[in-house]
TrEMBL record:
Pfam families (alphabetical): BPD_transp_2
Membrane topology value: Multi-pass membrane protein
Organism, as annotated: Variovorax rhizosphaerae
Protein name: Branched-chain amino acid ABC transporter permease
InterPro entries according to UniProt: ABC_transp_permease, LivM-like
PANTHER family noted in UniProt: HIGH-AFFINITY BRANCHED-CHAIN AMINO ACID TRANSPORT SYSTEM PERMEASE, HIGH-AFFINITY BRANCHED-CHAIN AMINO ACID TRANSPORT SYSTEM PERMEASE PROTEIN LIVM
Coiled-coil blocks: none
Location(s) in or outside the cell: Cell membrane
Keywords noted in UniProt: Cell membrane, Membrane, Transmembrane, Transmembrane helix
Highest taxon above the source species: Bacteria
Amino acid sequence: MTSNRRRDFKLDLCGLALLLPLLVVPLVTNEPFYNSLAYQAAIGVSAAMAVYVMLRMGLLSFTVPAFMAIGGYAAAMFAKAGMSELLLLMGVAFIVPALFAIPLGALVLRLKGIYFIFVTFLFNEILQLVLFETPTLTGGSDGIPAVPAATLFGMSLGSPSMLVVVTVSVCIVATICTLAVTQRFRAEFTSIEENETLAESLGVAVWKYRTIGFVASAGVSGLAGFALVNMLATAHPSSFASWSVNNYIAYAFVGGRGTMLGMVVGSYLLIFMTNIFSSYANLSAGLYGVLLLVVMMGAPNGIVGLFLKFSERRKTRIQPTITPVVKEGRA
């Protein structure tokens, strides 16, 4: 394992470790504000992880809200049918979007640049129409209300504190899935991101690894969708609006798109500041935009990228200068 890869792996583990304190929040306080922050952060991180998987291959995918909707609605349908076991619902929320991603990936993964972005964004809009125009299946504009809370071995997990714990637990599972995929195929993903043509000429099956990443991203998105539906006890089209992907992408770029730690840091920062700015009513959107501008101008590679840059500079400065000693020989 090279030094850079070892460093990135440690940063990814740090990102995973930063999620653990969220499990403690509902156990130490009943304050709704802090519980709300915890579940918002968990859902935001899960969705950002789905963006991260595709960014590892240099692709900016806008399908996250659509796959969140597919996973969330699938889990809601199972829960309404009486199958509310947490592990089952998590499996459904991951597998169903992943299956949808296989034929969709066959259509869109050969596209590049703006064409890929445009088509994946259109997929969100098409799915929104499907959700609204199929009331017998999805409930239409009413969605699927009164979704039962998940259970674990028959024990209900519907109390406010347990809902937060479940949401954070789903986020941790989504993060572990992301870590497993991005580390297992790190070399292939990196080669595709750096030079797709060269990677293909060296025998890397670009389309194969793009498909693996796309399917994994869809599954992680589905877990985020299930966490949202379980928290709100309803599956509604408005919860998966196309514009929400802008937030998830912002989390990735503000925190630092190169590591999973960046996804966590970006999500925590922007979600916390969004809640702070919400008290300023009409100014909240403008303040949020100013924050994005300041962070992106001051740290083009994200907050974690800026930290790594300063860390490398510091190491360079403190390295001792070794002066070679030349011994004079006797004549």
